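Continuing the batch. This is chain 6 of the set; chains 1 through 5 are on the previous pages. Same settings as before, nothing changed between runs. Recording input and output for traceability.
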Amino acid sequence: MPSNKQRREAAQRRLQRQLERRAELARKRRRNLLIGVTAAAVVLVVGAVLLITGIGGDDTDAAAQPAPASPTPAAVDGADGTCDWTPADTAANPDLQADTGTPPVEVTPTGTTEVDIATNVGPIGLTLDNADAPCAVASMVYLAGQGYYDDTVCHRQTDSEGLKVLQCGDPSGSGAGGPAYEFPTQVAGDETYPRGTVAMANSGQGFDGSQFFLVYGDSQLPPSYTVLGTIDEAGLATLDTIAANGNDASNGPNDGAPTQEVRIESLAVAA
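Output for chain 6:
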């Protein structure tokens, strides 16, 4: 059993890692903002990014900027077997669930995790990458163990030319909900989002929560979203059915709630 001194030293190391990651995220946002001001082509990227927002409402300034052409990859949060979970401001946002607690600090940064999603439209199987997104995977597994995702709706579907996704993972159904914690978005700067990708949604603040999006058609997005893994063929068939039903365009052209309600009946780690 570790001594009090060892526990204090471990806590100090985790705090230092968290401060360093936040400083790195701030530097990236400043660089991205300068690039966004000088590049007229950013207007096209912004249009797509505004369609993928998660915890934090509509504040997407940071995510709306393209990443540097040759970024220096940050260390993977969780690569050392531990993750930094930060309490979310549940008092300021009533759509956050204050009773979720936080996942264990220790995580598994190797291998893959299989997840089965049962929906009212059909099954969706996921293969999550523990090495590239250990904290995001650990968070989903932790919440799945609580039944957090069960009986929740996928609140957003887009079918524009450059963005074809179904967004889920918010029990409130508002698009602003999430758990009582958040954790750093994990990107290297070269992420792409082709058909069959599952990734974490965020509001551009450099942190993820519980919302994720399922890509059913090649999507043009900046590398600002943690890639969790891939979707199996049965899941893509289910997503194609959902896409064929369209959306109500409540958020604008080609963007809104699915016309036919899509409800996650259960989300669980495969046995």
